[in-house]
Amino acid sequence: MIPTMSFMRRRIGSHAAILISFVAGLAAYGCGGGSDTNTGPGNNNPPPPPTPAQTAAPVITSVAWVQEAGCVAGTAGPVTITTTATDTDTPVANLSFTGTVTSCTPAISMATATVTCPQTGLYQGSVTVTDPESNSDAQSFSFGPCEEGSAP
After folding, report:
1. Residue 109: exposure state from Cβ atoms within 10 A (0-12, 13-18, ≥19)
2. pTM, to two decimals
3. CA 123 to CA 143: how far, in whole Å?
4. Measured CA distances, 71 to 12, 78, 150 (Å)
5. CA–CA gap between residue 126 and residue 116 (Å, rounded)
6. CA 81 – CA 128 distance, rounded (Å)
7. What is the separation of C-alpha 125 from the centre of its chain, rounded to a whole number of angstroms?
8. Are 56 and 134 in contact (CB under 8 A)?
9. Where are the alpha helices (DSSP H) in 31-94?
10. Of 23, 75, 49, 64, whose CA–CA distance to 150 is shortest?
11. Calpha distance 55→128 (Å, rounded)
């Protein structure tokens, strides 16, 4: 007996439905189930890197300068420059201090630095404090011959 067309359609139709369901399930599993994670079987892409955390910048609370005892205007002498800074997520020992004072040497390279100035005019200075994440704060200051003081 030869099967009728309607019997064959039902039989092929039910197998086709099962086969289509199976293939669709494999495709969804292999593609991560439609999620955006880009991970899972069949996907060799690593997950995206985490977003870097925001870090706090250092804050200069004071730049003070003190002249050597017996300072004489017109005679070169040492000036001690002390920069005080804080950083909520970095120890002060891990901060970098840099700066200059016009006509004075050497450059500022630490929290307390001694520079030699000619003591003949107005001196403009600037100090920058930087943390390991490259966040920074800067403070400008100025002083005249044999003057002491602080900023801000």
Report:
1. exposed
2. 0.64
3. 5
4. 106, 9, 18
5. 15
6. 13
7. 26
8. no
9. none
10. 64
11. 17
Token pair, residue 105, equals 């040497």
Per the listing, tokens 């003591």 go with 119
Q: Which residues partner with 77 through β-bridges?
A: 117
d(CA 107, CA 124): 13
* Residue 15 φ then ψ, to 5°: -65, -40
Q: Which residues contact 147 (CB under 8 A, 6 or more apart)?
A: 65, 67
pLDDT in tens, 93-149: 999 999 999 999 999 999 999 999 999 999 999 999 999 999 999 999 999 999 999
Structure tokens at 47: 């997950």
Distance CA 74, CA 97 (A): 29
Question: Which two tokens mark 115?
Answer: 């520079």
Residue 142 pairs in a beta bridge with: 124
Residue type (1 letter), 36: D
